[in-house]
Amino acid sequence: MHPQIIRNKPGKCPICGMDLVPKGSNKELVLDSGIVMLTKPVNAQVIATIPAIQAETGTRIYASAVNGVITYDTRNQTSIASRVGGRVERLLIKYNYQPVRKGQLIMEVYSPDLAAAQRELLYVAHNSNELLASAKQRLLLLGMQPAQIEQVLRTGNVLYRVPVYSNSDGYILEKSAAVPAAVPTAMPPSSAAGGDGMGSMSGGASAAPATPAPMAPAAAPVLLREGQYVSAGQSLFTIYQAKALVAEFAFPSQLAARIKRGQKLLFYPNNDENAMQSGSIGLVEPVFRNGLNFTLARVYLGDHGFQVGQLQTANVPVVYTEGWWLPRKAVWRLGNKSVVFKKEKDVYVPMAVETGVEAKDMIQVNTNIDGWKVASNAYYLVDSESFIKTNN
What we know:
Number of strands: 23
Shape: elongated
Helix content: 10-25%
Structural class: alpha+beta
Radius of gyration: 37 Å
Distance between the termini: 41 Å
Largest sheet: 7 strands, antiparallel
């Protein structure tokens, strides 16, 4: 039966000859051509009365906040290594970050090679004075102090325990332990204006993977134990000097290209904004750590009241001269995609755009949207099911 044939009484279709069916039993939906435009899904177009806005351009200066941590200046560190292979007979270092002073006894090591060299020294001293200087030189190269060598010659007894002393003042750290380091944190998710319930869904999609915050150094016990054997040349401890510290700040990729050495920044402890200080970036270093690529900026501290492991927040003024700027709520974040709703005649059409940094309540759009009118709040125009199915 042809649906365009309509009669006010029972009969047959003049085209195909089928019996006419009462209109009330016809369950097929017949769309009026006047409302076809309203039946398109929201991933194609949206009809709404939300105000439209235009993107702003021009030079802008925003202060971006980055996280950091106070750590030791690696330029002032010294290492303690074992010059001979042997067994640790006595260990006076019990935990990491234990304070030590220059000349302080750290451990005593028994070395068969060192004991044999001392016996050779005593033999040479009794039989041949010509080789005495060479025997002393060998013991000096093996790590014995001149006073210890003279003690062996004076007493005629071999020193089976050779002491190892600290070569600097500071805080000692086992080589296997890690110094606290800065890592980038997740960017804050975009928030939806209004209480339509879409904000929580979008925040989960747009936020970067969270990374662990830097932790304060822990006074953990050292792994080296008495009775353990060490090899010649093995580096055992590092001594860091607390008089010179650095503040390390981790910059995400969006800001890394905009910082340079000598740039000023303001930073303060996370729990006290009133203790704000200024500093200059002394080193910019690309870093790959914990599976993340970011840029590390170091601020060298002079006279300071900071402690190692203290968390810091820095505000860095950044100048932006390119791109267009929209309110953050005008851009819908869908995973790794960003969408704005462009107004075309009486409807809004979703358009994918490339976004840059987020500063305050604004977001940078790198796609050319000059002259576009977009919805002032994209979150009200989204049917999440349609967008998720279409963009998968």
